[in-house]
Amino acid sequence: MTSYKELGLVNTRAMFAKAIKGGYAIPAFNFNTLEQMQAIVQASVETKSPVIMQVSKGARNYANGTILRYMAQGAVEYAKELGCEHPQIVLHLDHGDTFELCKDCIDHGFSSVMIDGSSLPYEENIALTKKVVEYAHAHDVPVEAELGVLAGVEDEVSAAESHYTKPEEVIDFSTRSGCDSLAISIGTSHGAYKFTPEQCTRDPKTGRLVPPPLAFDILHEIEKKLPGFPIVLHGASSVPQEEVDTINKYGGKLPDAVGIPEDQLREASKSAVCKINIDSDSRLAMTAASTLPSIPVTSTPASI
Q1: Is 104 among the residues known to form the active site?
Q2: Does pLDDT of 243 surpass 50?
Q3: Residue 138: enclosing H or E segment and its boundaries?
Q4: Catalytic residue among 94, 97, 155, 279
Q5: Which of 77, 104, 135, 211 is surrounded by the fewest CB atoms within 10 Å?
Q6: Which of 67, 93, 91, 66 is nearest to 79 (CA)?
Q7: How many whole angstroms separate alpha carbon 118 and alpha carbon 126?
């Protein structure tokens, strides 16, 4: 077994407490490749910000748990090399679906895990979450749980329809499960298509879709019931239109792709939301960069 502390990682407890007090959220970036990890660390150091690097079940299977452990350790050392004396980097499991997976991640050096029992009946969700919490807390690893269902597709996580989190359930769920943070559903969704055209209006000047607002009334009600408790937003990519335009210009087909407006994410961050998950934006940026036409490099032979 490898403790995350041996790798130089930190957990999210102090990080979330500072975020709630300061009225901001920590970005949690999904990554699948070395290049993505490098970019995440570079941005974290440049902005002098803490960061959560997270992987899904599918991404972990792709990378291999052992290799991923050393990649995380490398990320910490890379941050130090770039000038950050005390890196605040978390390695987090996103959408873990079994106790066994969460346990294996903890045993391999993850400093935070999510157990997603949101598709299960309420009592089963509590029971599964509690089982993960008991093991994780014995190793000083915090646990994120989910209550409510997000629509959309991301890796192996998919749902046709969203179901908003019920504020009246959050106290009972968090108390009985013992979770450290709670992912809620207030209108975000996975993937680059977070809303259908029918759910949106169109800007008459640009023709772009304007998404509906998030359910801030539900968020504020949850915040009242769980004051100071860390809340997480999944499916919160903003889907930058300049990246979508680049992809479409060079042969991609992403008509009407739309995300969560950044001003709404900032508003959510001023409340109890202290972790915002971003996956699609990174994929869009990499895809857009790869579609740009290559620029030929010419060189002049040295004189003899």
Answers
A1: no
A2: yes
A3: none
A4: 94
A5: 77
A6: 91
A7: 9
